[in-house]
Amino acid sequence: MKEESGTIQHLTREDFKVPNPVKWCTGCGGHAVLNSVQNTLPELGVEKENIVFVSGIGCSSRFPYYINTYGFHGMHGRATAIASGIKVANPELNVWVVTGDGDLMAIGGNHFIHLLRRNIDMNILLFNNKIYGLTKGQYSPTTPKGGITKTSPYGTIENPFNPGELAMGSQGTFYARVVDTEPKMMREVFLKAAQHKGTSLVEVLQNCVIFSNQIHSEITGKEVRDEHQIYLEHGKPMIFGKERNKGLVLDGVHLKVVTIGENGYTIDDILVHDEKDPDDTLHYMLARMSLPQHPVAMGVIRSYDCTVYETLLYDQIERATEKSPIKNMDDLLNSGNIFEVK
Prior knowledge:
Layout: E1 2-4, E2 7-9, H1 30-40, E3 51-55, E4 70-73, H2 79-89, E5 94-100, H3 101-107, H4 109-118, E6 123-128, H5 163-169, E7 174-179, H6 183-195, E8 200-205, H7 217-220, H8 225-228, E9 229-232, E10 239-240, E11 246-251, E12 254-259, H9 281-288, E13 296-303, H10 309-323, H11 329-333
Parallel strand pairs: 3-4, 3-5, 5-6, 6-8, 7-8, 9-13
Antiparallel strand pairs: 1-2, 7-13, 10-11, 11-12
Helix pairs in contact: 1-6, 3-4
């Protein structure tokens, strides 16, 4: 919000738009993500001058130029390190990292896992188009095994990263997944991510019309999305399908898709989503679900409350300062082993 003539005027998406053109390819999923973020920010109740967007290198990392807030365009893979410094230096700031699957999970992988482990209060938007777009079509850490790209003309022979698995393994406290074709879904999840106290990671399944067009079509296609996606909501049964008659149950230690009304299954048998469960076993299983055995999980998969790094850091500094006999520079220069030069 902003103050004018003694009154509070609410921010709108127009306050976050820039007059310059957005130079992403026509049809790029980034446009939809940008619009959803601009629609989300006015709902946060944060003054515009306290919002910062940080990026590394890549098509996604042009984001700070396209939104009317403070921004920092960093080096390849270093956005999370830069953002960590910004947040720790000024915890009052609302910090966002916008990055891609190559920028975050390849050269930026080490910074990424330690950010999640520390749980610094910021938000990561991961544009996952499963390709290096800006550098013209090389395979990335999330490219499907066997994928034909500029640098894998005979197909990749590497196992791809699942960002959700990596987040869970790094002790991440918030992980969600959305698709760029669902603006309502993005807005809901971005708002929940911003409200989470700690590091939030939102994986955006994003389309690159040039180098990986329709890479997510098995999930986003109008004719299949109801059957191939399950949108998770805290406290609600895990049901999906065009007829809303399919759901998830535990079969031993595995998730199983069943049809409500068949083989004795009722709505009471369907698992209820608990995004705040401190035991992340089920969250891990949901993040790993894939076609054709299971639908792909969307929405907030994990949102667990835990200690936040910068809060503990400032508490620690305050306690250390109280106990220390040195309170200022004069104390430092005139205490301990000192001598006088005559």
